Amino acid sequence: MSTQVQRCAWVNADPLYIAYHDEEWGIPKYGDQELFELLILEGMQAGLSWYTVLKKREAFREAFDHFNPERIAAYDEEKIEELMSNPGIIRNRLKIQSTITNARIYLDVMEEGSFSELLWSFTEGVPLVNHWRDVTEVPAVTPQSDQMSRMLRKRGMKFVGSTICYAFMQASGMVDDHTMDCFCRKQ
Predict the structure, then answer these.
(1) Annotated catalytic residue 62
(2) What is the mean pLDDT of residues 166-185?
(3) Is 20 a residue of the active site?
């Protein structure tokens, strides 16, 4: 008799990835700064895999002052050069500059209210639960991710296309896309 736990098909055998799937992905997150960090990291994923970003997440946290938006918003060219020479992170100048821009916009949003409430408004404040039988059924974008992307881009944020926004919605628990055979669906 097998005691193998069934997970979503995208999870590899790395204990780091397994823990991420089992303990983080799809679990609702509501903290403003926690959501800011996740959105930035999803943007860093553009053109790469989430696994690549996940392996570098702790280095990102160290390099970007634990995603403190006030500190990031004040980064200057010297700090950008320091980040560009950091082998522990993804050294893409446009992504680094977008993080600074996005931190400034985050601060503007926080003056108006809550970053979390703004983002969760696209699901009316509750997780959307899908019922996918197979990972191939899971979409890359949805009308909600299209709307979120348009709103964030209109505010001036970068690396927030609809695909990134949908991955963010999945990771933050705004959407539950664990496939029906995944043990996380039963919890």
Answers:
(1) no
(2) 96
(3) yes
Give 36's DSSP letter. H
Residue 113 burial by Cβ neighbours in a 10 Å radius (0-12, 13-18, 19+): exposed
Chain centroid to Cα 176, Å, comes to: 14
75 is known as an active-site residue: no
pLDDT of residue 185: 86
Secondary element (H or E) of residue 128: strand 128-129
pLDDT digits (tens, 9 = 90+) for 99-108: 999 999 999 9
- The Cβ-side half-sphere exposure at 118, using a 13 Å CA radius, reads 21
Tell me the residue type at 131: H
Residue 45's nearest CA partner among 104, 11, 90 is 90
CB distance 67 to 35 below 8 Å: no
Across the chain, what does the average pLDDT equal?
A: 96
* Rounded Cα gap, residues 110 and 119, in angstroms: 12
Q: Which of 50, 75, 106, 166 is catalytic?
A: 50
